[in-house]
Amino acid sequence: MLAGTTQIRGNTVSAPKKVVLAYSGGLDTSIILKWLQTEYGCEVVTFTADLGQGEELEPARKKAELLGVSEIFIEDLREEFVRDFVFPMFRANALYEGLYLLGTSIARPLISKRLVEIAAETGADAVAHGATGKGNDQVRFELSAYALNPDIKVIAPWRLWDLSSRTKLIDFAEKHQIPIAKDKRGEAPFSVDANLLHTSSEGKVLEDPAGEAPDYVYQRTVHPEDAPNEPEFIEIGFEMGDAVSINGETMSPASILTKLNELGGKHGIGRLDLVEGRFVGMKSRGIYETPGGTILLEAHRGIEQITLDRGQAHLKDELMPRYAELIYNGFWFSPEREMLQAAIDHTQKHVTGTVKLKLYKGLARTIARWSDHSLYSEAHVTFEEDAGAYDQKDAQGFIQLNALRLKLLAARERRLKK
Length: 418
Fold this sequence. Notes:
cytoplasm; ligase; about 425 residues; argininosuccinate synthase activity; five-stranded parallel beta sheet; Arginosuc_syn_N; alpha/beta; Arginosuc_synth_type_1_subfam
């Protein structure tokens, strides 16, 4: 075998010298860490991101140290995540397949960005992730990494190793003295991904879309039927399309989303049971909870109603599905996403003002909105005397001009039927 190569499942592959691993501290990524060390004989750097998943991250440091890692990166990226990824996406009102608020999708480019940056800082020639060969995340991690560094090597162990069952994973862990929590020895009832924007639950008990998801799957929201019997009213302030305050209190992006999560969870807002079309071709069923994001989307649309011109608003809604699909498919760092972002951000120059919402039993509804940038003119729409603001006689010519082609089409149909 040539120097700098190794055998994996009968294939000779080039071995990296140093790998930066996206590391959660859980069993799977701990097994990946040890597998990288044993298969490649390389040094491994771990990177653990705090994106608001709500877990203590120091245990990840201790686990990495136990496995012989000397360079350990644990970073709080919550503000960057919301400011530079979540908020730009919400300016577009992005929904994949009309429903999904893209909570997992939007986190992957930030993780990839830091993996590539840490690789440059530490002299690593490869990065690695724990996404499986069936899902979308492998695509998102790798497209982002290659867009930022075309020379980076990306290692995806789930596509390489022969640890194809939970039993084999446990055996590998025991062989290499990787600590295994008691609840990991049996089959997990479902898989969870979480960050400040949402939780995503998939697999096992959720795989049959004909069965209702058990209530224990939901982690951030109370059942809407169990939510308070009294509604709660809040006001969200916006500047140039981004939320900046709640009930008059100016807050940071991550703090705003954290507070909206608390409010939405309390009122059972933001639950979604979705069968979606994965980029890799199959359909999958996921249970999503996006309490704060659901409130934020409703509020953003509320302020746009009075500050966006009709032409802007309608074209923006036409662009949105394409923009959402780009994010879902992993093309955040693509020229077409950046082009659409520039157009979307241009529309947000006057999206400034305040929205009042009613939170009640699983729903967030806009009930009032106001802005110094408003295009709404009461003088033009009033049913009362409008003091000459609008001449209703003008509508007759407008209608006749727009009806002309329809009248010509109808005349042709009548003529041909004779």
